[in-house]
Design goal:
It is built from 14 helices and no strands. The chain is mainly α and 306 residues long. The longest helix has 30 residues.
């Protein structure tokens, strides 16, 4: 019942966010304001504080392989399919986007904060950081390729000016140098504590504003691709490279069951590329994540806990 308890907690916050829009307490512009706070302040302070407190030098290789392996494997396969002509440009980009930018920070951190008493919370922060590095880089590259707004390497500045990217890199640098400022840590902790709950609340507002049959129809196959192929790739990676992962294997499977990230829509709007499909992916994968994560929990428990 532990998985149901954690998911029920998140569901209640999502519903509260939706009710806030239905009742008119918050407007659509308020959702953007709250999302901006989480994206530019809440999550960066949370990531910096947690990562800087870790010992990066003792990073578990199994966690790195299990975290990055599934997404990297699928993205490589999609790229190969595109190069040999099996995928057209738009399907390649949308399938790749469905994999590259997951809600490991917005949804995943909140989920693991309550799951099993927060046992995997620190791992979730680290996994979200690793996947954030991969996701931000690949997502910007894909949108640049989709829009072809500029040539050359100008997009590199966008990657390294991203607030999540900056907080992750600075957190890693702080961890390596063992530089800590107690007063700054306390301030970051206070702001970071607001990130998880606010992010899930905003998700409820987002689903209310973006959910429609037309959008869902356009995004269904890309959503289904993420919800099925990514966990299968995680099972393959753990089975081949991490056969003795134990309970860590369960964490890896669940981590790869997270929905697509709201930030995907933000990027789609900025690049004016397939906004409806991006919004549909976020809405569908978020709604079905409650069923998907429950199924993955029982599957992974039978595989890794005997």
């Amino acid at each position: 019942m532990e998985i149901l308890s954690s998911l029920f907690t998140i569901l209640m916050i999502v519903i509260a966010g939706g009710i806030s829009r239905i009742s008119g307490i918050f407007k659509e512009k308020d959702a953007k304001t709250l999302s901006s706070f989480v994206y530019y302040f809440g999550l960066p302070t949370l990531f910096f504080g947690k990562i800087s407190a870790l010992n990066i030098r003792q990073l578990d290789p199994q966690l790195v392989i299990g975290t990055l392996g599934p997404s990297a494997l699928i993205l490589i396969i999609l790229l190969a399919a595109k190069l040999v002509g099996l995928l057209e440009k738009d399907p390649f980009i949308l399938l790749s986007l469905s994999i590259s930018f997951g809600s490991y920070a917005f949804f995943g951190v909140a989920f693991f904060e309550t799951f099993q008493g927060g046992r995997w919370f620190a791992s979730a922060i680290l996994a979200a950081s690793l996947l954030g590095l991969l996701g931000i880089i690949t997502t910007i590259i894909l949108f640049e390729y989709a829009s072809r707004k500029r040539k050359g390497w100008g997009f590199v500045s966008k990657i390294f000016s991203n607030p999540l990217m900056l907080s992750i890199l600075l957190g890693m640098l702080s961890s390596l140098l063992q530089v800590r400022i107690p007063a700054l840590d306390s301030a970051f902790d206070l702001v970071g504590q607001t990130a998880s709950g606010t992010a899930i609340f905003v998700l409820g507002m987002f689903i209310h504003d973006r959910f429609s049959p037309a959008i869902i129809h356009r995004a269904f196959r890309y959503s289904l691709f993420r919800m099925t192929v990514l966990p299968l790739a995680a099972l393959l990676i753990t089975g081949i490279f991490l056969p003795e992962a134990g309970e860590l294997g369960q964490f890896i499977i669940l981590e790869n069951g997270m929905p697509a990230a709201i930030a995907l829509v933000v990027f789609a709007e900025r690049y004016e590329y397939k906004v409806a499909e991006a919004a549909g992916m976020v809405s569908l994968t978020s709604l079905f994540s409650f069923l998907n994560l429950t199924a993955l929990y029982y599957l992974s428990r039978s595989l890794f806990q005997g």
